[in-house]
């Protein structure tokens, strides 16, 4: 095989979910793209990897010291939504319903993977709360074993914060999901936490 | 969202099979990679896109005027295997069974997509045959409508080539495939072209 092709296939197949076959398909596709479009793509990747920062207030990905959400004076600074990762911020922003701030933990507590509370941005969250503006903390963390552990740990740490409400996002059957295919725990929880309609 | 992140997600999601969600996952993964590894990847992509050439003899992807197969003096120059695309060359090379040369058409005849015979490297194949060294042409083209059309067209063009055998690869039930799930045409063909074992 051509060395140039072999190199690009080798590099692309290091990415998660991309095997050698997909890498080859991507490489061949790039030959059909304009050279300028390919260099725009590689330049965007390099600029991202070399210049991206973490917001000093919420740990979200950011171009500057403060991320666009923290820098936006229209956001409600009394509510903070705590999430595991940057992609959760994007998912919640896409709903266009939430107007508060975020706090990105950067993972969940996972002894199996050697991630302890000190590896997450929990102290930063408490520092922010100590400033006094925050009145509610919404925990939007996965319901995995690691997520539940993290939620439990954060709830304990927040116990001393007077005048700060702590909530978790609602659990239940998703819109469009069929009850038949939901797991027992979710169904049981959804029935227990039923909403009155009349 | 951060502009740097938005840019990289936008660029990556232009690639086939990569949506915005996958692009975001790839971008986040790149943050966990070393900066040098990311620049090695982008450099490999740029080098590939800007420097790759097509072999002047067989139209395979190549670093030089001749591709590694055509340049290899150990290959059997009396046999040429005609394939649609570069990835087919790689698939056949991976078997380590074929020792002849290749000829990459660069597609198949497809009136629907506006691809006619003149868009494929068929004249180059005939020029190569005219040099007199080639004794057999193996057609390894898909059994789609477009592939069959292309095969029919090439076979017609080769009719005038005296002393050149033309064959197509065997069709039948693949190793590991179950007869139950094979289509009727393949089963019928496999029975008709049965091989004696005793």
What does this structure look like?
2 copies of one chain form a homodimer. The first copy, chain A, has 2 domains: 3-51, RecR Domain 1 (Helicase, Ruva Protein, domain 3, Orthogonal Bundle); 73-168, Dna Topoisomerase Vi A Subunit, Chain: A, domain 2, CATH 3.40.1360.10. Chain A is an alpha/beta fold. Chain A has 8 helices and 6 strands; from the N terminus they run αααββαβαβαβαβα. In chain A, helix 7 links the parallel strand 5 (136-140) and strand 6. Chain A has helices at 3-12, 20-32, 35-51, 68-71, 86-94, 122-130, 145-158, 184-192, and strands spanning 53-54, 61-62, 76-83, 100-104, 136-140, 165-168. A 4-stranded parallel beta sheet of chain A has the order 4-3-5-6. In chain A, strands 1-2 form a two-stranded antiparallel ribbon.
Summarize the structure.
Two copies of one chain form a homodimer. With 198 residues, chain A is α/β, with parallel strands linked by helices.
Structural class given helices, strands, pairing of chain A? alpha/beta
Query: Uncertain spans of chain A, ≥5 residues at pLDDT below 50?
Result: none
CATH class of the largest domain in chain A: Alpha Beta
**Overall geometry of chain A:** globular
Element-level helix/strand string of chain A: HHHEEHEHEHEHEH
**DSSP strand (E) fraction of chain A?**
5-15%
Spell out the blueprint of helices and strands.
Two copies of one chain form a homodimer.
Chain A: H1 3-12, H2 20-32, H3 35-51, E1 53-54, E2 61-62, H4 68-71, E3 76-83, H5 86-94, E4 100-104, H6 122-130, E5 136-140, H7 145-158, E6 165-168, H8 184-192
Parallel strand pairs in A: 3-4, 3-5, 5-6
Antiparallel strand pairs in A: 1-2
